[in-house]
């Protein structure tokens, strides 16, 4: 079989799989267009929700300031709180209405606005203010760090967004006696813990988002009964493999497979038994394919297999092995009876002038010839005739 070393191919496949999982989680790289669009949609929705929560929290604290602070300080803080609440809501609204505005940039501005606003508020708190009030204001860095947990973002981005919270903690105002029992060292450890949890939560959300998209794409591209690719995804893959094989001057084989007299299986043993035969056949087909090959269900009992880098001799070995294993494979019906089935296979080898349609037509023609010649056999197609 004219293929790359199986172990080398599997190593490359595993490396690509690991990169595909880790890079989006760590750095946001390798996201497809659909994945990035879905992530941006979720980020903008979360930003709007969080902006509303922050705005409500800012306004809800105003009565506490009015009761515990001198009138002048309380009124200054009231104006700051209203301005910050309006600013974060306006930012979230703009992010929703402006497709070109990156949601990550909008979130960074959202965090930055709060850091500036909270630092300004803290500077307006008198030194002799109630300790509990100062403790409440001292929680601002931790509040900012905790907010980041709601956004499905990669670790690197989450850590970068946490820097304003760290900056707040390092300001002289937060190193004062707002919480004597909590030293700067203890505060730093608490903030670090919250940042780590927020980063983990954001990366976990991103992973779940990507898995949901992958599951949706997988469902759309695969046959629900057998788990093989469906016709549309198989034809797309076949077109890609043909173009690559022709560009690199490499062989490619296409197998068209059809279960013989499958209608009789359904009629005699029932459709549940027929489904079991299809599932067992799909498992046999899959077991005889390499990592780079593709098996697909294109109709009721019709299948194809795309074999890149496979010449005539190698294709004959694969096709004959599938045929022989199916002929020897017993499948049990619901009532315990043994079902035997066979498969006819047509094989077409890629010609330099082939398209996906012509290659499939030649494989189908060879399959029909196998049926006419008595079924349960492998037949090769003739050369491309235009």
N to C succession of SSEs: HHHHHHHHHHHEHHEEHEEEHE
Which class do the helix and strand fractions yield? alpha+beta
Helix percentage? 55-70%
Number of domains: 2
Distance between the termini: 28 Å
Report the sheet with the most strands, covering strand number, pairing sense and barrel closure: 5 strands, mixed
Average pLDDT figure: 84
> Compute the gyration radius: what is it?
32 Å
What count of helical segments does DSSP give? 15
Total beta strands: 7
Query: Which of globular, elongated, flat, extended, rod-shaped describes the shape?
Result: elongated
Strand line-up across the major sheet: 2-3-1-6-7
Content of β-strand: 5-15%
Low-confidence stretches: 1-15, 176-181
Describe this structure as you would to a colleague.
This protein is an alpha+beta fold. The protein folds into two domains: 11-219, no CATH class; 231-380, 2-Layer Sandwich (Alpha-Beta Plaits). It has 15 helices and seven strands. It has helices spanning 6-26, 33-60, 62-68, 71-97, 103-123, 131-138, 140-147, 155-161, 163-170, 184-221, 231-248, 262-269, 271-287, 312-327, 356-372; strands spanning 252-259, 294-297, 302-308, 331-332, 338-339, 343-349, 378-380. The strands form two sheets. Strands 2-3-1-6-7 form a five-stranded mixed beta sheet, with helices on both faces. Strands 4-5 form a two-stranded antiparallel ribbon. α15 (356-372) links the parallel β6 (343-349) and β7. The longest helix has 38 residues, at 184-221. The chain is elongated. The protein starts with 5 loop residues before the first helix and ends in a 6-residue tail after the last strand.
